[in-house]
Amino acid sequence: MLHSFDADMAARYGIAEAVLIQHLAFWIGKNMDAGRHDHDGRTWTYNTVKGFADLYPYLSEKQVRRVLDKLESEGVVVTGNYNKSGMDRTLWYAFADDFAHLPKRANASDQTGNSIRPNGQMHSTTRANAFAHTGRPIPDRNPDGSTQMETTDPLPADAGTADGGGGAAVVKVDATPYAEIIDHLNDLCGTGYRPTSKKTQTLIRARIAEGYTVDDFRTVHRKKAREWLGTDRAQYLRPETLYSPKFESYLHAPEPTQPAASRHSVDADPNANFQRLASAGLRGITS
Questions:
Q1: Per-domain residue ranges of the chain
Q2: How far apart are CA 180 and CA 195, in angstroms?
Q3: Using one digit for the tens of pLDDT, what is the confidence trace for 50-63?
């Protein structure tokens, strides 16, 4: 999948911060146009840390929390709690009054739902979508766990994205977490595979398209390493095998009861095993 963010925001606050600013800008703009989630003179959107991390698999919950705390401390967003249940701790987010990216409510002089960019250009809130190349908005996770999802028309070619002209710069990135997955495999198995390999990337994208997560890749790495390291099957601890269509069977296979090296150590030195067994037999006879 491809996510997008505002290059000016990335230069000022950081890439992860720019991604979440883009997300908030889209949903706050949508809520402004729909006249909903207005509280204390602001328009809000809400999500949980886990909800953000699920939407952006290259950001851990810890990273999401750090980014949101930074945006609040630097005066980009303010937080609140307008949940119906007093026990619901889901945070709500609105842009701070003096933040230049604050979406502008549609009025008599501006019926387009535009938002003001840092360089003074006007930018449609529908373009503040992290899936700008498809025109599909990001789903916002509701406090009850359901998904808020609205559709928009596909963007025209000149909507200001990286593949068109006009508007403020928006950079498209391939957000697939290749490095995170391959680094875990290499660290666990002592291998040196490259996350930039086109074949490896194709396999990873195929599995992610089927709904598997980074944690699923980690589970496969752990299970097969425990089963194959120290055996002649260690050579198959490689992306080509692990991320093949057999990925599901590897993922849901039972946990190995003990490391491969321990299971096979009995056969490692036949002479030593014979001596040990013979000694045990003699002790049994004399005891």
A1: 2-174, 178-256
A2: 8
A3: 889 888 888 899 99
